[in-house]
Amino acid sequence: MSLPKPSPATTAPVMNPQRLAAWGQEMRAVHQRLRDALDIARAGIEDDQQPESLVANDLQLHCGGFCRALSGHHRSEDAALFPLVLNVVPELAGTVAKLRQDHSMIAHLVRGLEQALRTGEDKDVLLRHLDGIDAVIQTHFRFEERQLVSLLDGMVIEGLDKAVLYGPIA
């Protein structure tokens, strides 16, 4: 599918175009950081060398951090990035609807992992939760990148900042 070109009439001029030249690549970088965070969470679960009390603390830190980062990223896309994309290229409404549906499914899977952490489920259960999240986010990220990276790299939108991709930073 060839992406529609943004209309010059719907993009705002920017004082520093270099600053906004690669939002699609920034999206890829965010996705890679989230993949790395998932790998760290998995390593924390799989590490049999740590004392059990340390493992529980590491799981809360790594899995909880991953869950918050992923959820924040998706909430920001839904609330800020996707409306900007649709303002520039309304023809992507179906794609954005699919991405939002993925976000809902991923949020459900993340809540399952968080519940498993709270109730102290064993390592095999936690790994199954991570496997499910991993499978869905890999497919989701690849689809999102195919659909949006080149479009975002070509867009110039006044006021866009990294919080749109990273989520709220608290």
Sum this structure up briefly.
This protein has 170 residues and is mainly alpha-helical.
Topology:
Layout lengths: L22 H24 L5 H37 L4 H26 L4 H32 L8 H4 L4
Defining key terms:
170 residues; mainly alpha; Four Helix Bundle (Hemerythrin (Met), subunit A); 5 helices; 0% strand; elongated
Q: Gyration radius, to the nearest Å? A: 18 Å
Estimate the global geometry from the Cα principal axes.
elongated
How many β strands by DSSP?
0
- The CATH topology corresponds to Four Helix Bundle (Hemerythrin (Met), subunit A)
> How many strands, what sense, and barrel or not for the largest sheet?
none
Written overview of the protein:
This protein has one domain: Four Helix Bundle (Hemerythrin (Met), subunit A) (Up-down Bundle). Helix 2 runs antiparallel to helix 3 (93-118). It is mainly alpha-helical and 170 residues long. The chain is 72% helix and 0% strand. The chain has helices at residues 23-46, 52-88, 93-118, 123-154, 163-166. The radius of gyration is 18 Å and the shape is elongated. The protein contains 5 helices and no strands. 24% of the residues are buried. The longest helix is centred in the middle third of the chain and has 37 residues, at 52-88. Residues 1-21 have low confidence and may be disordered. The termini are far apart.
